[in-house]
Amino acid sequence: MIHLAMTKAERRFFRKIQIDRNGCWLWTAATDKDGYGVFGVGDKYWRAHRFAWSIRNRPLEAHEQLHHLCETPSCANPDHLVLMTPKQHKQLHMSRITHCPYGHEYTPENTYVRPNGQRNCKACALEGTRKLRETPEGKEQVRIYRQSERGKEVQRRYRQTEHGKRAHRESEARRRVSLREG
Q1: CA-to-CA distance for 110 and 103, rounded, in angstroms?
Q2: CB contact burial 73-110 (16+ within 10 A = b; e otherwise)
Q3: 182 falls in which pLDDT band (50, 70, 90)?
Q4: What CA–CA distance (Å, rounded) separates 28 from 38?
């Protein structure tokens, strides 16, 4: 591992590595709050695994991310790292989370995936919207939105769907009943 062509910083780096039985290069010096090794060279601080990757392969661009195949943040072994885009990396980690914080399962029907890969639970969003509509401020926001051009267009498209047609008929029936009673 250590050979004569190494720089002074690289020799200092490898003195802070301890190899475990899984082949992980465990960082034995300072770590950040997430458990990643931190290594200083001059006035620049590196995460230890990024420094090791740059020695073995090439320096990383700021937007490039490394995924630990061994799932050990303190590991700096370049053989345990895979280069990924931020979106790929986020999707990989998000795929392991099967339920939202409130216990709803992330199914295709119950999940909205944002362009950045973040998932949102539709059941929670509906509940939040329902609660907002019950407040005076929420009712006012809904009234203003419905009067806007965008709101009118959304309502027109919704009424063309089967669900929208049924909801509109039910709403009209309730309105007629309340007019008779009122």
Answers
A1: 12
A2: bbbbbbebbeeeeeeebbbeeeeeeeebeeeeebeeeb
A3: low
A4: 10
**Alpha carbons 110 and 105: distance in angstroms, whole number:** 7
Question: Residue 41 burial by CB count (10 A; 0-12/13-18/19+): exposed, middle or buried?
Answer: middle
Distance CA 25, CA 68 (A): 12
pLDDT in tens, 99-145: 988 899 999 999 988 887 788 999 988 888 888 778 888 888 878 88
* β-pair partners for 41: 44
Give the closest residue to 23 by CA, choosing from 67, 72, 66.
Answer: 72
